[in-house]
Amino acid sequence: MDARTPRKSPFQQTPAFPVLVAQSVVTLAVALVLWMVQGLTAGYSGLLGGLVALIPNCYFAYRVYRYSGARSARAIVGEFYSGEAGKLILTAVLFIAVWLVVEPLVVAAVFGGYLAVLATGASALLIVRGFPKH
């Protein structure tokens, strides 16, 4: 391995992994609760809203955390900017796809699922603190 080659990092050992797991659990929980309380349409609407937030976050985390170490700093910064741009574009595309393709849809449930996953990501510092170090 060349001294300038960025080191690859196992994804399960990154700080993003437990956050993405928590966001996945929240996505499924919101969908299940909405389905049980308001019916099938609300359930899949909440699931889609959660996925609209979760999928771009997975993309971003993969891009940013695929390298590690001090030698990788330049690569990490570059991946951060391109990952964030990709995340924003992917979020917009997924929202548009949901609005155009899925019918019927409960709009409040879509946004509820989306916001629940975003809130989980916003509390990432609390989640990552409990993540065991290897």
TrEMBL record:
Instruction: Write out the coiled-coil annotation as residue ranges.
Output: none
Which terms are listed as keywords in the entry? Cell membrane, Membrane, Transmembrane, Transmembrane helix
Principal subcellular localisation of the protein: membrane
Spans traversing the lipid bilayer: 16-37, 43-65, 85-102, 108-128
| Organism, as annotated | Halopseudomonas pertucinogena
Localization of this protein = Cell membrane
InterPro entries for the chain = ATP_synth_I (IPR005598)
Q: What name does the UniProt record give this protein? A: F0F1 ATP synthase subunit I
Signal peptide location in the record?
none
Q: How does it sit in the membrane?
A: Multi-pass membrane protein
